[in-house]
Amino acid sequence: MTDSTKFFLPEDRLPKAWYNLAADLPEPLAPPLHPGTGQPLGPDDLAPLFPMGVIAQEVSLERWIDIPEPVREVLRLWRPSPLVRARRLEKALDTPAKIYFKYEGVSPAGSHKPNTAVAQAFYNKEEGVRRLTTETGAGQWGSSLAFAGSLFGLEVEVYMVRVSYEQKPYRRALMETYGATCIPSPSPNTAAGRAILAEDPDSNGSLGIAISEAVELALQRDDTHYALGSVLNHVCLHQTVIGQEAMAQMEMAGDQPDVVIGCVGGGSNFAGLAFPYMAEKLKGAKVRCIGVEPTSCPTLTKGPCAYDYGDTGQLTPLVRMHTLGAHFMPPGSHAGGLRYHGMAPMVSHALNLGLMEARAYQQTECFAAAVAFARQEGIVPAPESSHAVKAAIDEAMRCKQEGKAETILFNLSGHGHFDMQAYTSYFAGQLTDPAFDPAALERALADLPKVAGA
Amino acid sequence: MTDSTKFFLPEDRLPKAWYNLAADLPEPLAPPLHPGTGQPLGPDDLAPLFPMGVIAQEVSLERWIDIPEPVREVLRLWRPSPLVRARRLEKALDTPAKIYFKYEGVSPAGSHKPNTAVAQAFYNKEEGVRRLTTETGAGQWGSSLAFAGSLFGLEVEVYMVRVSYEQKPYRRALMETYGATCIPSPSPNTAAGRAILAEDPDSNGSLGIAISEAVELALQRDDTHYALGSVLNHVCLHQTVIGQEAMAQMEMAGDQPDVVIGCVGGGSNFAGLAFPYMAEKLKGAKVRCIGVEPTSCPTLTKGPCAYDYGDTGQLTPLVRMHTLGAHFMPPGSHAGGLRYHGMAPMVSHALNLGLMEARAYQQTECFAAAVAFARQEGIVPAPESSHAVKAAIDEAMRCKQEGKAETILFNLSGHGHFDMQAYTSYFAGQLTDPAFDPAALERALADLPKVAGA
């Protein structure tokens, strides 16, 4: 047994291929449907928005998809990311459990998001695209695409939900440092934005509006594509470098996880860590995978699985997923990256197949867990990642009660340096845990699109 | 030759001892003097402020001083820190030079400062101290001591220059996350603070005032010591893990630096990287060491070497160093960590002995270099560290002109996540490069204390 704290893989062990869980699922995913016709989508339907390299991955049933060398070259700026054993936290909890975390905060933008941003920028550049548009809420995704764009010489326009644009000026500054343009949404640049501003010039904006603006501009311009930071199959695919590295590192540590944990918003960081373990589970391995969401936006724990739109504007394809309804408006929370009405279809399917569990926590208990973690391990977690920290601590305490020396692995998907206002609010006692409103969910679910045979 | 980008040492190669340059200097350092008597200080004079473990290091002439195992255990949370070859930057500059950087931003507080904060917290805890007081300007040091205090169960009170306290709320939040108390200075808690507030209730504060407050409180309370984040010999000593690791990592890379670069404020991050290389230089190795400071606070390039106080309140010992005079007030700049009137006596002495060079840059050219670096390598440098980036790029361009394939190594002492406002100002064209005022320097130097025989 090793007494090391951190486990680094040499650069030449950066994964050479992404792992595609779709190849191993006992039942296939339901196909995405055209928002107009309700018929299954073909690749040509997606071509105005995405490059063919990405579209092929979205529908692929190949188990392994090679990572192009130029993408690996950029990933090597920070990958393989460290696996860390939280020895101080274990001691503080006085638990027989071993706690490991995979730390994705070492990326330039501070989270797992660049793993897919770099791949998407590469495929777009390959196909002659000159400009990418996207939306961002808290800013993690926008700054990741800005970073990737700067490396591949692509212009990047980020439509940032106006309330975040004003509350998180540091995220905006980070995007500008990488050379991107950051525009508060709703904006006068698009028909979608103008319509909202005509009704309410002071609109705070929403992720749904920002998506509509970014998609509208990509559709209008021949040299411009759109990029999405979570939910879709190709995004989950690009994140599987996390789990593959973690497996190799756990082997270095001489351990195997009994429990694998990630927070879930759109689902991609959880997918990245857990899908390679689900492949083992499908072959008989005993490992529990747990997706953790906020009680304020309980997509997996309270939402039905149904066809729904990805945005409020109903411009995106219909995908079958756990959803709270595209019009569900979760209460304000500092885990902006987890405030999405839907869930990756692959993660939704994995839940339905019994490959994983889901649980939900209030935000204040997650901040309490994050502070306990920071005071032992030093790293201040992003508010989103604090949900995974809370679940890991709860599992470690269960092990203590049951006298079991289980091994727990969680994804620390990002650091909180750009979210310190949330910690200030927490210490000032200003964070609340709004009660979940079942009537609001019922209203939003009543608007679910009717899809024949779904 | 390797084609790797990052070089990691295994944890068991974390240095086991600190390197003390004082043991190898051809001429001894001038002793510190008592501020009241002007006589050389004895250990007892420092005992009210510092633990004996630290005082012994301050005056030691031993070449190697063992790092206590509990300190190494904490350092292993993030050390050994990575050495990175900036291959993308080299290509963008089209230079024959090789550029490496040692990255200290991986520490929990985001800079090199925890290297000494952890050691100081340990020695204080060992000697039964219950509480540490300190000052902080930009917040790097305050958050580092807060972190170290939380690990060793020490209360930490940080007096933060009021203007920074208000402009950098995220740094304050970080200190509070680590359980420290952060108080805007001048405060009503001390005689020094009350005197200033009586004159000007809206005083912005200054580092000199904050030092006086922290020192006053430590002197008043038996269970309380004071901790300093730069300048002193023991601080430079604790930082030498940086250079020792870098040497081992350059060996892994199969290279040897021709030029070693660090920014200098109090001098400790530069000392940490450069002192182990100076030891080689004293044995005949050909390596240039360059300390880089802002033109707005040109301690090494324009200040004489003389005995001076460390603070404006004249409470600290007199040390012989390059200084602009304790009353010199540098113009505002975003590199708050480099706005100090003095310089580590060891670094000052090294300059006088010809072991290093010094140069100064304007802040806008440093931000331009930092942005160029971020767009290639991903990491956004702290404003302080941007001075080292600028010098590294200039050296690489010199190599291009001269057709020389030299190897350049610089210390990227911290990331800029908590300083993004500075980047916003830079992009908005709001940063100026104030002309240096020789008359102001002359006035400040006229106040230098008269020391017999110095």
Automatic annotation (TrEMBL), chains A, B:
Q: Does the keyword Amino-acid biosynthesis apply?
A: yes
Q: Which CDD domains match?
A: Trp-synth_B
Q: In which pathway does it act?
A: Amino-acid biosynthesis; L-tryptophan biosynthesis; L-tryptophan from chorismate: step 5/5
Q: Give the EC number(s) under which this enzyme is classified.
A: 4.2.1.20
Task: Name residues in a coiled coil.
Answer: none
InterPro entries, A to Z: Trp_synth_b-like, Trp_synth_b_CS, Trp_synth_beta, Trp_synth_beta/beta-like, TrpB-like_PALP, TrpB-like_PALP_sf
What positions are modified (N6-(pyridoxal phosphate)lysine)? K113
Provide the reaction this enzyme catalyses. Answer: (1S,2R)-1-C-(indol-3-yl)glycerol 3-phosphate + L-serine = D-glyceraldehyde 3-phosphate + L-tryptophan + H2O
Is Amino-acid biosynthesis found in the keyword set?
Answer: yes
Q: What class of enzyme is it?
A: lyase
Cofactor(s) listed in the protein's UniProt record = pyridoxal 5'-phosphate
One example of the protein's molecular function in GO is:
L-serine hydro-lyase (adding indole, L-tryptophan-forming) activity
**Residue limits of the Tryptophan synthase beta chain-like PALP domain?**
77-414
Record-level GO cellular component terms: cytoplasm
Q: Which UniProt keywords apply?
A: Amino-acid biosynthesis, Aromatic amino acid biosynthesis, Lyase, Pyridoxal phosphate, Tryptophan biosynthesis
- What Pfam families does the database record attribute to this sequence? PALP (PF00291)
Family of this protein = Belongs to the TrpB family.
Self-association and partners? Tetramer of two alpha and two beta chains.
Provide the function of this protein: The beta subunit is responsible for the synthesis of L-tryptophan from indole and L-serine.
**Protein name (database record):** Tryptophan synthase beta chain
